[in-house]
Amino acid sequence: MVNLTKKLLEAKDWVKVRASTNAQQSFLTWYGSVYAFIPGEPKQHLFEIVGMSVARCIPKSEGGWDFTSRELTFYLDPEGGEKLDTWKNPWTDEILPVVHVANNPVQGFFKRPMVAFINEELTTYKFDLFSCYPNPLADDPKFAEYSPQPFYQATELFKLTVTTADLQNPETISVPKVMLAWDRVGPWLPWMKMGDRQGHLIYSAWGGKVPGVAELPLLIQNEINTRVPLFKNAAKSLLDQNNMTSWIYFKQNFNAYLKGEKFPIFRSEVE
Q: Is residue 271 in a domain?
């Protein structure tokens, strides 16, 4: 049996894991699979995924850190691994544009101590996040075929593991080796055009911290270099914007989706 101690660690320790204590940006990347779960039906492996986050923790003079990040996730063919620009819905046979994840920003604030599970070799942070809030698409009848449910409800389960020695080293400003596990249970994505069909999506993914853009998967590097160069860097300060989600992004870019444009939407700006 693994001997683990549950302990409250300072926010500074978490900042060293997620980014760095001196406002330098850091990158996480992940790979995984997405399955359809419909009661009474066998599972369907719909997609592979590959994604990244570029993040920065900015120390505040009054204590704590502002957290700002940008994240991408791409839906891939489950067999060949190619990026999907269109997808044939296996329940309706309709061919639909694929709206990849391009969330900018995703932000927060870290100050409170956080629970971790520790032994001599490894330290793991575990976050079980349950979201339930009004669906931003539900009130507009034009989205009835895409996401008519009154509430968005999902579960995301994160585990980030580091070596205890790296974390406890007082000279460390950013833990270099981070192992990520991420699982998600959530509703059909709006662009899948599933309406009120019963079922959920299950994500199973893993990944870790990498030194920079050059160590990201080639597909992501190519997309950043040619379509979304803004995602090379995290913002240098907290942005005065609401957090972006896939549902809001779909709403904002619905006309582009109807035109069959390629996602993520081309953005030339850099930071």
A: no
